[in-house]
Every structure is written in structure tokens, then in C-alpha cells.
Amino acid sequence: MIMGSKRYLGLAVAQVGGIGINESRAAVVRRLIELLREAASRGAKLVVFPELTLTTFFPRYWMSEAEAQERFFERQMPNPSVQPLFDEAKRLQLGFYLGYAELSEDGTPYNTSILVNESGDIVGRYRKIHLPGHDDHKKDAPFQHLEKKFFRVGDQTFGVWDTLDARIGMCLCNDRRWPETWRVMALQNAEVVVLGYNTPSENIHWPEPVHLRMHHHLVTLQASAYQNSIWIGAAAKCGREDGHHMIGGSVIVAPTGEIAAQSVTEEDEVIFTKADLDLAETFRRHVFDFERHRRPEMYSLIVERKARGGPVRG
Ligand code: ING
Q1: Of 51, 72, 181, 199, which is best to mutate to test ligand 1, by the most ligand atoms within 8 angstroms of its C-beta?
Q2: C-alpha distance from residue 292 to each of 49, 153, 187, 287 (Å)
Q3: Ligand 1 geometric centre to CA of 147 (Å)
Q4: In 3-state terms, what secondary structure has residue 33?
Q5: Residue to probe by mutation, ligand 1, list 61, 131, 153, 177, most atoms within 8 Å of CB
Q6: Which domains, from first to last, does the chain contain?
Q7: For 198-255, what is each residue's pLDDT tens digit?
Q8: What is the pLDDT of residue 5?
Q9: Of 45, 128, 149, 237, catalytic
Q10: pTM of the predicted protein model
């Protein structure tokens, strides 16, 4: 294919298999470095790691906030345990997205992701806005989902950053289920949105058929990519973590809504696409020309109302 003036982003998604509750940061970072190296060999420029990549998905366990922060949060970023990842990425001239549990300078706990450029600089940070789960101890449940206990809602809206020769946005896991997430970044002209996720295959609230977890994950991303004319890279933390199963399905979705690459295991696995950033232009110029077709004056309910309510017309 004549490269010519076309713009491409070598986009890799690094899926991470189960991380045991006692697995050290050093052992995890070694796994992430292996994934970086494979991504580089495939031509990647940006590598997407999962949500809470450095540890097991600890919100599944009941413990005090203090214990969680002691065992599973990062007080600095980078820090000595993740510095080898930053160094290797810089050596390979790769940018990456990394999800982790952040204890901010003022001591606030967030479910956070960062965007790091090929020089190893943190160019963007996002703190998860849509926190699923609960904050009480559900003693009869097979596991907990305590994101509402261990994290505070993010303090800034969804952002996009010009780096790695593209305009890149970030979100985290449950955010992908909310259409507002994507529109806010599309309105900032995002070309690529990257995210990580930890999605348990079992629902603790009702006997949800297990296939629905993968269906909702994929239909959400495919619709959002198409409706917002963006590329999406989504990285699973998946497989079994001390007996608890989470879905895989790491995926790269094109602005057409089609799946360009998808993982086939529930372990550490790299998928890659040379993303044609001009592909989105076609859709932005016609079907989704926001300037010509959108009618914000008719959408005010979306921002004014939080919960479902009554009709607004006679
Ligand atoms: N995990 C899940 C997710 O949104 C979930 C929680 C699953 C909520 C299914 C609702 C339905 O993929 C995280 N970490 O948000």
C-alpha cells in the first residue's frame, strides 16, 4: 500500500492474564516488559495496558481502605517498581497507557490511567468517573466489587492529548458503557481512545447469562467507535485471579465499527493494528459531521437530568 500522506498509528493492545493477590509488582512489570517487546516487534507506537494493571483486581475483596491503600496503591508515578517499564518503553521508543490505583498527593484514592509518550514523559492522566459496584460488605456474594469504597470519582472530565502524532483520549472500564464518555472525547476531536478493563464474567446481583458479558463489551465498543468516528484500543486484565474469572476479548475497533483485531486467549497476549487515522475522516465528513447534523439545543436533558424522570413534552 502506498503510504504517501496517509497517517497511521501502530496501535497495540497488551492483554494481561490473571495477577495473583500476592504477585509482586516486580514480577508483573517483567510480564509487561515482555508484552512491550512483542508490541515493538509488531511495529507498535502506542501500547495499551489494562485497568489496575500492576495488581490483582483487589476491589473483589473486603478490606479496609487503609489496607487497600497500603497493599495496592501507588503513591508516586513512576516509582522504583515501575521505572523499568518506563525505561524499556523509552528504549523501544514506544508510548503506553497504564492503569493503576493512584493515591494522589493530597491522599485521595483514584482508579487512574496515564498516557506516556515515547520519551517516557507522562503527558496525560485520567481518573475514573463511572465507578461501578458498591461500598458495603455483601457477605453472601461470591466476591465483592468495591470500587465505590476504594476509589473517589475522578476530579476532571474526559480529556484528549496530542501525542505520538495522534489525538488520543482515555477512559477506564465501566466508562465504556456510558455513551457520554465517548461523545465528550469525540467533541474534543479524539482520533483514538484507549482503555483498560477488569470485567468479572459472573454477575453477583443476578444470574446473568455469561455470554452477555462479552456481548455487551463488544457491542458497546463497536457502536461507540462508529458513532464517534474513532479508533478504540481496549485491553483486558482477564482469566483467573485466585479462582475469580474475568472476560478477555481485548480488541481494536475501527471507526467503521468493525473489529480490526481481537485476542484469542485469556492470558498475556498482544494484538496489533496499523490504524489508518484517515479512515475516520470519511465518516466525520458525511454521516457524522457534527457541525452540520448535531442539535445540542434538543439534547439538554442529557446534561440537566441525572436519573430517569417524567416526560418533558405536553
Ligand atoms: N468492571 C465492570 C465493567 O464495567 C461491570 C463492572 C460489569 C459493571 C458488568 C456492569 C456490568 O466492565 C469495572 N472494573 O468497571
Answers
A1: 199
A2: 36, 34, 13, 10
A3: 10
A4: helix
A5: 177
A6: 2-304 (3.60.110.10)
A7: 999 999 999 999 999 999 999 999 999 999 999 999 999 999 999 999 999 999 999 9
A8: 78
A9: 128
A10: 0.97
